[in-house]
Write a structure and sequence with these properties.
alpha+beta; binds flavin mononucleotide
């Protein structure tokens, strides 16, 4: 491909959401996820990829946004990453403007220290009072949480 890439506008954002099962042994999770996030953020920044990774119990759900070729290439790598299994795409396709534009990879967890101000609740997570997520972010996080909930072997 020798022709110059068109300048990506908001209309060209590609979004992919998947769910997978965390295979990192419990005792290694904190350190391994720390490494994963810091590597992912610096690489995503270079690729102009944004998104969020929800870590909840034995499950991951991730949203990736950016250029279609870049997102697809990253997902091809992610799919074969031995740190998780049962990777299944929830939705993918062209979307409107980026929803997680500020985040090279936001960390969202029910029990951790999220970047996006979300607080833990008994039945999942919801925006912290005051500094909430945007409605668009909440809509995507709801899809991710639902994917984890319905994918879990026990409810
Ligand atoms: C749940 C999960 C999410 C990941 N998210 C990203 C990500 O957003 N960006 C990234 O560069 N790598 C991410 N990775 C790591 C990739 O799978 C892969 O290790 C990384 O792209 C480096 O690939 P390389 O060694 O071929 O360069 C993730 C891995 C897992 C298990």
């Amino acid at each position: 491909m020798s022709s110059p890439a068109p300048t990506p506008g908001p209309e060209s954002t590609f979004r992919l959401i998947y769910r997978s099962r965390n295979k990192i042994p419990e005792e290694q999770r904190k350190a391994e996820l720390g490494r994963l996030f810091s590597a992912a953020r610096s690489s995503n920044k270079q690729q102009h990829i944004t998104g969020a990774l929800l870590v909840q119990g034995d499950w991951f759900a991730q949203v990736l946004e950016g250029d279609e070729v870049a997102v697809s290439a990253l997902f091809a790598d992610i799919e074969i990453d031995p740190r998780h299994e049962d990777v299944s795409v929830i939705e993918s396709g062209r979307a409107g403007p980026r929803v997680f534009a500020r985040w090279a990879m936001a960390r969202v967890s029910a029990d951790g220290q999220p970047d996006i101000p979300l607080i833990a609740h008994e039945d999942g997570i919801s925006p912290a009072a005051g500094r909430g997520t945007t409605p668009d972010q909440e809509a995507i996080l709801a899809i991710m949480r639902e994917a984890i909930r319905t994918g879990a072997p026990t409810r």
